[in-house]
Amino acid sequence: MSSLKATDVAPPAKASAARKRGAKHPEILFKRVYDAPDPGDGQRILADRLWPRGLAKLKAQIDFWAKDVTPSTPLRQWFHQHPEQFDEFRQRFLDELAALDAERNVMLAELRTRLTEGRVTLLTAAHQLEDDEAHTHLRVLRDFLVSR
Fold first, then answer.
1. Domain boundaries, the chain
2. If residue 138 lies in a helix (H) or strand (E), which one and from where to where?
3. pLDDT tens string 23-53
4. Are strands 28-32 and 64-65 parallel, antiparallel or unpaired?
């Protein structure tokens, strides 16, 4: 059984040159890594810097671990202490992603390639994915990926 919702699909973003030529937005879903894998997940990409506690790698059925394309440890720790400051976290994480992009980060390039191959489910150990307004790094990462 899948816990995916229609709201988990990437929303329209500003059109880039590729999208103006008719390319569609990648389909990016969110799911907790502890939820059972589902054939509808597409590629399962773990988007956490740390491996989830108590989860066997075989059971997780992860296709790719994008650990370097997640908030840095200092930023993650800062946000944990200041969860009410999501807008500030969002901007700092976008700045980190832009720096990775400028450095032509291999993991970010691999993630983008996988997005062109069909549906992708970004996985996290975060507890608050059910709420459409949940403040999570997955939404920031998705927005960054579809805006470029």
1. 28-146
2. helix 137-147
3. 567 899 999 999 999 999 999 999 999 999 9
4. unpaired
